[in-house]
Amino acid sequence: MTGWDATLATGNPVVDAVHRHLQELLEIVDRATPRQRQKLVTPRLLRDLYKQFEGLFAAEHALMRDCGYDRQSRHEIEHKAMLSTLAQLIDQFDENCVNMAINFLEKWLASHLKAEDRPLAEFIRQRPPRGGG
Ligand SMILES: [Fe+2]
Questions:
Q1: pLDDT for position 90
Q2: Measured between alpha carbons, how far is 94 from 131 in angstroms, rounded to an integer?
Q3: How many angstroms separate the CA atoms of 40 and 106, rounded?
Q4: How do residues 74-114 score in pLDDT, each as one tens digit?
Q5: What is the C-alpha separation between 120 and 86, in angstroms, rounded?
Q6: How far apart are the CA of 79 and the centre of ligand 1, in A?
Q7: Cα of 72 from ligand 1 centre, angstroms
Q8: What are the pLDDT digits (tens) for 17-69?
Q9: 43/22 Cα distance (integer angstroms)
Q10: Model confidence, pTM
Q11: CB 14 within 8 Å of CB 56
């Protein structure tokens, strides 16, 4: 993780703010010592993240609908699978889950942002949502 990536900007304030927030949070976790991580990554944090992801995904889905995005269904499948893995990690949370959760979130975000969210942002830049004026 190397800070906020401007190529991910969709122009949607909710999507952009949550992307930025998630990237910043993962950077904090990245820099933390193992002991700090144990304190930081708790079921409560994961539940909070779950809610943020839910909100982010709903905003992305609305955005995709608004601009007639052609890859919406595969993008939504990734979101759904992600929430289900995160829910499992929360349900079975124990000490070992801290590193598992961090690894999962880092890998998922890095790959999803690159493979799905960046093409969406590019699509929107070339073809702004309908009904804007
Ligand atoms: Fe997404």
A1: 94
A2: 48
A3: 15
A4: 999 999 999 999 999 999 998 888 888 988 998 998 899 88
A5: 23
A6: 6
A7: 9
A8: 888 988 888 889 889 998 998 899 999 999 999 999 999 999 999 999 999 99
A9: 17
A10: 0.87
A11: yes
- Rounded to an integer, what distance in angstroms lies between the CA atom of residue 73 and that of residue 63? 13
Rounded CA gap, 89 and 82, in Å?
A: 11
Looking at residue 130, its pLDDT comes to: 66
Degrees (nearest 5) of the Cα angle 106, 112, 113? 90
Burial tier of 63 (Cβ tally within 10 Å: 0-12, 13-18, 19+): buried
As assigned by CATH, the class of the 12-126 domain is mainly alpha
User: Measured in angstroms, how far is the CA atom of residue 35 from the centroid of ligand 1?
Assistant: 31
CA–centroid distance, 81 to ligand 1, in Å, is 11
Tell me, in angstroms, the distance from the centre of ligand 1 to residue 49's CA. 14
